[in-house]
Amino acid sequence: MLSNNAPSPPSADPTLSSHVRKYVPQLQSWPYTPKDFSRSDETNDDDFYDQPRYVAHIDEQAIVRLTAYFGIVIPRKGRVLDFCTSWHSWYPETHIEAAKSNELEVYGIGMNKPELDRNSLLNNHPTRSVVADLNVNPDVRAQLSKGGAEPPRLDAATCTVSIDYLVQPVEVLRSLRECTVEGGKVHLVISNRCFPTKAVRMWLELDTEERLQLVGDYLHFAGWKDIEIVDLCARDRDGTRLTDENGRMLQGEGMLGFLRLQHMDPLWVVRGTK
Questions:
Q1: Is the pTM of this model over 0.85?
Q2: Which long-range contacts does 251-257 make (Cβ < 8 Å, 24+ apart)?
Q3: What is the Cα–Cα distance from 65 to 11, expressed in whole angstroms?
Q4: Which residues pair with 188 in a beta bridge?
Q5: CATH number for the domain formed by residue range(s) 17-273
Q6: What InterPro entries does the record tag this protein with (predicted)?
Q7: Which residues pair with residue 270 across a beta bridge?
Q8: Which terminus of the chain has a smaller tally of CB atoms within 10 A, N or C?
């Protein structure tokens, strides 16, 4: 049991408005070139993702904060897409149960079938999971229309720590917007981890703030509106940021000595509305 003098654990409440800011476009036209989206490993992505990787990609503290965020912003009824997904989407249990009961229709696009089959949001409705490489065909509508089905009209979409791998992000986000209802939202989750050989060149050359602005540019040039940047980095119960941009503790071990944490993965969301 914690003593009365023990520091508060990191906040999982992502609703504080002070942690949300408007994205402000700084560009009049798309300035990036295909070279910016090249990668050090240009071999077929099917080979890289051929074997399932049952890993989390972000640490447990970040997962807690992300799940809390999804619990607030993702509807429990309607249709949702998790793209560039894998074996876990980090949605809360309430949404998993809603998906099982078909109250919430969850669709998934990912690269590895065993991972998709294990995803608790998708495995009760296998026809809603699509194995596809969005770097080969960035048309989300086409991927969701396989088999001749009419693509679903989406209320929301998520992409967790994978936007840095897309070589045609604007095309992906534009086609996603086309199958999203008016007022629907997309949430692009960003941390500082990646497979560097598969991340686009430009991503590896930018600092955190430049990456957040870049993802805002993706949404802006894809036609999304009301673009915002949400800071989901660890905070104490008073809202004080606990880590720097790389996840290192700002106050050392004393701030969270009872957890003996020196690092907590940083986390942000760049989101837009149709």
A1: yes
A2: 254/7, 255/7, 256/7, 256/9, 256/10, 257/7
A3: 8
A4: 159, 270
A5: 3.40.50.150
A6: SAM-dependent_MTases_sf
A7: 188, 229
A8: N
